[in-house]
Design goal:
elongated, mainly alpha, 0% strand, ribonucleoprotein, Small ribosomal subunit protein bS20, Methane Monooxygenase Hydroxylase, Chain G, domain 1, single chain, 87 residues
Length: 87
């Protein structure tokens, strides 16, 4: 247990930050799953539409340093390649 007031405050902040970051990470994973589901359905137009929304979420999460910028780029690249491969 934290002994000082500063340590107690940092612990509270850590819990709040973890909750916020977890929700954003969940949003990210959900959007990626939506794109993958659209790719599996074989509908390129739907996949492109969902991919645009997912790209926005991926960039937003990377800007907040919840995931690394290179991971964000890799995810976008792989999703785009998978959509392109539908045709």
């Amino acid at each position: 247990m934290a002994n000082t007031a500063q340590a107690r405050k940092r612990a509270r902040q850590s819990v709040a930050r973890n909750k916020h970051n977890s929700s954003l990470r969940s949003l990210l994973r959900t959007n990626i799953k939506h794109v993958r589901k659209a790719i599996e359905s074989g509908d390129q137009a739907l996949a492109n539409e969902v991919f645009v929304k997912a790209t926005s979420v991926i960039d937003r999460v990377a800007d907040k340093n919840i995931i690394h910028k290179n991971k964000a780029a890799r995810q976008k690249s792989r999703l785009a390649a998978a959509i392109k491969a539908i045709a």
